[in-house]
Amino acid sequence: MSTALGISAVSAVLKNLLNGVLNDPNVKLGLVKVSALAPDIVQTNLDAGSSSPQVNLFLHQVTLNAAWRNVELPSLASNGTTRLSNPPLALDLHYLLTAYASQDCLAEALLGYAVQSLHENPVLARSQVDFYLTGMNTPPSPLAALISSGLDGQLEMIKITPATLGREEMAWLWTALKADYRPTFPFQVSVVLIQNPKPAQSPLPVLQRKVAAQPNLGPSWSSLTAVNPPNGQPAANLGDTVTVLGTNLSSVTNVVLTNSRLNLNIQPVVLPPSDASAGSLQFTVPDSDIAVSPAVVLTSPSTPVDLPAGLYLLSAQASNGTDVVSTNSLPLAIAPRIVVPPQSPITPDAHGNATVTISCVPLLRVGQQVSLSIGSQEAPANAFSNGTNRVSFTFSSLQATNQPVPVRLRVDGVDSPIIDTTKTPPVFSGPLVQVN
């Protein structure tokens, strides 16, 4: 692949190609200057009195190559920082070939030889590219670095194709160039593959491929179909035993909980299963080992940490011979639990404002979305700068209730349990408070 000097290298190769053709002794057109400048610069030189015959290459447009533009995507891993590959930047180059002369018919002759040379070299061989670039490697030329552009070694060879510009397009183009029109031949060069040489990660090759035939319609691998917290609750609490349903679960060795919001996807929670059978297994959500009173504040990494409340992805690791494979993932919500509810009754001030404080498990982490609902009235948690199990909430315009109403703590969209589903019909069983 080419480096970022690939575009300049193409112009240099074409310039040297035309220079060799137009200044061949057999052509007999005199000394012809071949340049790769903007037409307005050439125009300025002509206005200054330059009268020597000249052929100019002008790169007026660069476009993406349609066939190569989606090769090797994506180039970054899911974390957005690890480079997996260096996809090439594939470009098509659009040129104008213009002839300048002050004698009758000389510009047409120059243009004829130049167009013929491009026609006879529709594909530039790698040896040609190397020859023309090596000829520029003469100090103190500022373009000596083009020899290291890698243009001669890129996967695709350089191809020259005539292009067509209508009269209006040509008129607009030369008007924008602010130069006098001269006989011009448009053509396209493709493809230049520019690739970043930065190092990338590459996976190791597969040592052995294992393919097995299963003579039944059921899957031969472990898979999960449902995650059921106890007592029909929508979320599990710390210390609860959760039942997982699926197929071929007897070989499961670990249950894995990940939470990308709290960076637990980098260091997932791995739990041992119990009562694993072909169709189900159970595991226990670790209980909190942090005392509720007095209030606990996380001040250092050595402080005991429990499993945060929130939404997790649950998967299992199963042994398959000497290999360990992971199952599909299913969501599991771990709910907070109010341990010390607000004192009841709550009496707001004259403006209806009231501040209430609760203690809960698990610890609340900085960055979690925490709110408290008293009946249907909700308030966000007051700001806290460290993880804690004791937090306050300020309600504005808190309305009185005629009777005690349930209190719910919501952490990252998961509510604390307030319903006893073991009774028929279900009843409210969570903490209740009354607002006077």
Count of spatially separate domains: 3
In DSSP terms (H or I, runs of 4 or more residues), the helix count works out at: 5
Order of helices and strands: HEHEEHEHEHEEEEEEEEEEEEEEEEEEE
SS class: alpha+beta
Distance between the termini: 77 Å
**Proportion of residues in helical segments:** 10-25%
How would you characterize the largest beta sheet?
A: 6 strands, mixed
Radius of gyration: 37 Å
* Beta-strand residue percentage: 25-35%
Point out poorly predicted stretches: 300-304
Shape: elongated
Count of beta strands: 24
Structure summary:
The protein is an alpha+beta fold and 436 residues long. The protein is built from 5 helices and 24 strands.
Description:
The structure is a single chain. The protein is 14% helix and 32% strand. It has 436 residues and is of the alpha+beta class. The chain folds into three domains: 6-194, no CATH class; 223-334, Immunoglobulins (Immunoglobulin-like, Sandwich), CATH 2.60.40.10; 337-433, Immunoglobulin-like (Sandwich). The protein has a six-stranded mixed β-sheet. Strands 9, 10, 12, 13 and 14 form a five-stranded antiparallel β-sheet that branches. Strands 17, 18, 20, 21 and 24 form a five-stranded antiparallel β-sheet that branches. Helix 1 (6-22) crosses helix 3 (106-120) and helix 1 (6-22) crosses helix 4. It is elongated and about 105 Å long. The relative contact order is 0.10.
